[in-house]
Specification:
This protein is α/β, with parallel strands linked by helices. It has helices at about 5-15, 20-35, 45-60, 105-110, 155-160, 175-185, 215-225, 270-285, 300-315, 335-345, 350-365, 370-390, 415-420, 425-430, 460-470, and strands at about 40-45, 70-75, 115-120, 165-170, 185-190, 210-215, 255-260, 290-295, 395-400, 435-445, 445-455. Bound molecules: glutamine. Glutamine binds near residues 128 and 422. The site of glutamine has 13 residues, from loops.
Length: about 475
């Protein structure tokens, strides 16, 4: 039963082949039995999952089931869940139980999903390997000596290990696409503003966006249809009508113009990864698409700009964790200053403190123009590259990551090496564009992801393109377990 896709679960539940309660029990059993190998969950909500499943079975029996009624999922632990601890994988929020649901959780609840719990992640979503979690690293189900990617490594690993068919995740600079690539799952980061950020703990507000990780594009389309909505509680939420992202999956893609950026195939790209991506591009040609050589000339500015802007926003966002209002508080503070300093010093991990330091420095008087303003100017140039590219092509494709999953600990001592993992994904967030990663092959039995970047609000088309690819290839069906 754990091999079923979301589309198959929807059909199976409606034709009464199995109940949501049976499926939920089965998956909870797998989590209990297997997750000690992966550490993909921080919290498992067995009791409420079974209650939600029973309610879903009742609605299915009454013939009043919403779209995803009875489908088990899990939420990244950065997304607030009413009454269920939301830790951000940080000691700082180890004791934080939100009194409300994020809008995206509300939306998925309304669609009938059953939440099995909260998935592990890099602390406050800062990282590319899922090694910075207070609860320990997540391990890649394809090889448990390797990282699953980050920061949504728990969501990706749980899907890859067939503990759940799909999960929510967030992506500030690649955290949906990068772990999807390294675990052979399909992940989609929508256009900035497509999914409400209300109730998602803020990392870098101008870049953060939630999205689904699932086994294939069709399942990602089901989840996205439920997750996306206009939300007056998020001032950056786009005024879009609810959409059915499964509607265009079967459109033919002949005539599609695929931009292939020169800059994404240069130095630093593993040659084997490059050849899997090239094979995928040839498959698209066979489907009638046309490859167009393009240039995104400011690509090399993406990492330096991001690693100023994201820490700058993070330093402001994380100032709320002061040991006073909620979260961790140090023992016996001497005075207010000591309370602030020790609560933050003891509550935040090393990488989070590094980001706060860098961000505060970049925003300080005297340095603001040299760093923050410069980074914003670079951001504008990067966005402009894409605007010009999309005058000539419909989508852009390339590798999601420079190489397959690396071993745990391999890059922990070198933050810059870790930041370079994001080289192909970060520009998408700086531009606010939608991006996707789709399995496209294996290197030494480790997965490779193809990145598909679309124009603004073109998620339905991207899912269509990915689905058509998955109709003629089986990479997404390759399994770690
Ligand atoms: N790896 C990037 C970072 O550490 C992106 C993480 C993310 O998308 N949340 O900031």
């Amino acid at each position: 039963m754990h091999q079923l896709t979301i589309a198959e679960i929807i059909r199976g539940l409606r034709s009464k082949e199995f109940s949501s309660t049976e499926l939920t029990r089965h998956l909870l059993g797998r989590i209990q039995q297997l997750d000690s190998n992966y550490n993909s969950f921080i919290t498992v909500t067995e009791e409420s999952a079974l209650a939600q499943a029973a309610a879903a079975d009742q609605r299915l029996a009454n013939g009043e089931a919403p779209a995803l009624c009875g489908v088990p999922i899990a939420h990244k632990d950065i997304i607030c869940t009413n009454g269920v601890r939301t830790s951000c994988a940080s000691k700082m929020l180890d004791n934080f139980i939100p009194p409300y649901d994020a809008t995206v959780v509300d939306n998925l609840n309304a669609a009938g999903t059953v939440s099995l719990g909260k998935t592990n992640m890099d602390e406050f979503a800062m990282g590319s390997s899922n090694e910075s979690s207070f609860y320990g690293p997540v391990k890649n189900p394809w090889n448990t000596r390797c990282v699953p990617g980050g920061s949504s490594g728990g969501s990706a690993a749980a899907v890859a290990a067939q503990l759940i068919p799909g999960a929510t995740a967030t992506d500030t600079g690649g955290s949906i696409r990068q772990p999807a690539a390294l675990t052979n799952t399909t992940g989609l980061k929508p256009t900035y503003g497509r999914i409400s950020r209300y109730g998602i703990v803020a990392y870098a507000s101008s870049l953060d966006q939630a999205g689904p990780i699932a086994r294939n594009a069709e399942d990602a389309a089901y989840l996205l249809s439920a997750m996306a909505s206009h939300d007056p509680k998020d001032s950056t939420s786009l005024k879009q009508q609810p959409a059915d992202f499964t509607a265009e999956l079967n459109n033919p893609i002949a005539g599609l113009r695929i931009g292939v950026p020169r800059e994404y195939f240069g130095e630093g790209l593993n040659p084997e990864t490059a050849s899997r991506v090239q094979e995928a591009l040839r498959t698209f040609e066979k489907l009638g698409a046309q490859l167009v050589d393009i240039s995104l000339p400011h690509t090399e500015l993406a990492i330096p700009a991001y690693y100023v802007i994201a820490p700058a926003e993070a330093s402001a966002n994380l100032s709320r964790f002061d040991g006073v209002r909620y979260g961790y508080r140090c023992k016996e503070p001497k005075d207010l200053r000591d309370l602030y300093m020790r609560s933050r010093g003891e509550g935040f991990g090393e990488e989070v403190q590094r980001r706060i330091l860098v961000g505060t420095y970049a925003l300080s008087a005297g340095y603001y123009d040299a760093y923050y303003n410069k980074a914003q100017q670079a951001r504008r140039l990067i966005k402009q590259d894409f605007v010009e590219a999309f005058e000539k092509v419909d989508v852009i494709m390339g590798p999601t990551t420079p190489s397959p999953a690396f071993e745990l600990g391999a890059k922990s001592a070198d933050p810059v090496a870790m930041y370079l993992e994001d080289i192909y994904t970060i520009a998408t967030n700086l531009a606010g564009l939608p991006g996707m990663s789709v399995p496209c092959g294996l290197v030494d039995n480790m997965p490779v992801g193809l990145q598909i970047t679309g124009n603004y609000l073109e998620e339905a088309r991207m899912l269509n393109i990915a689905h058509q690819y998955q109709q003629v290839t089986d990479w997404h069906k390759a399994s770690a377990v």
